[in-house]
Design a protein that fits this description.
Layout: H1 11-25, H2 33-40, H3 44-50, H4 54-79, H5 83-99, H6 105-111, H7 118-144, H8 154-172, H9 178-190
Helix pairs in contact: 1-2, 4-5, 4-7, 5-7, 5-9, 6-7, 7-8, 8-9
Length: about 210
């Protein structure tokens, strides 16, 4: 395919930025290349040059989102060794998306799972598996340090946390109330407390960019 004339060097990233916002607000099946082209003021041919089809665009979206999320988890690890603080910071990643009136990208895609191309479905599963692995490690650390208490395995508890946060985002969305999400997230995390069931004030769920 010939390269469209007068393409800006950052066009692929601009396409991904717009497409990500559309997925997080509308869902993957509710936007088209025409929507992206209209917002960027470019032709659909320009989109097809960089991303031949919507499946390729979806895979690129997840790859970039997963990389960014992974970097955020690495930053949390570098900032503290405290398991409580790590869990609160993790919930803060979701709060940050919700405060921008967006949903978790992979959470939105999971809601449309059966209608998505297999490579996108596989990428969504990998994203959640990676998050479970990180949370499992934090939970094991917290139990070893007597900071956390839970009866199920660390892996099962990690799945519970992800499901709880994704669900809290979904239910809070129609209310437009970030405080509703934070209250639910803090209650969820406090249920893992090894002491009196109260989340330490220093570890309240706050927005993380």
């Amino acid at each position: 395919m010939a390269r469209p004339q007068q393409q800006k060097p950052d066009t692929p990233q601009r396409i991904l930025d717009v497409a990500e916002q559309l997925v997080q607000v509308r869902g993957f099946n509710a936007f088209s290349y025409a929507d992206v082209a209209a917002q960027l003021g470019i032709t659909k041919a320009s989109l097809h040059y960089h991303f031949p089809g919507k499946a390729e665009l979806g895979q690129a979206l997840i790859a970039r989102y997963a990389q960014r999320f992974g970097q955020a988890l690495a930053q949390i690890d570098s900032e503290t060794e405290d398991a409580w603080a790590k869990l609160a910071a993790y919930a803060g990643l979701y709060a940050g998306a919700l405060s921008s009136q967006r949903m978790c990208l992979c959470g939105m895609l999971a809601a449309e799972y059966e209608t998505l191309p297999k490579p996108i479905r596989d990428a969504v599963v990998t994203f959640f598996d990676d998050n479970e692995t990180w949370l499992e490690r934090v939970l094991d650390q917290g139990r070893t340090d007597d900071a956390l208490r839970f009866e199920a395995s660390a892996r099962e508890t990690a799945r519970m946390i992800i499901s709880g946060l994704e669900g809290a985002m979904l239910v809070s969305r129609p209310y437009g109330d970030i405080a509703r999400f934070r209250a639910t997230a803090e209650t969820l995390l406090a249920s893992l407390a090894a002491t009196d069931g109260r989340l330490p004030a220093r570890n309240r769920v706050k927005r993380r960019s």
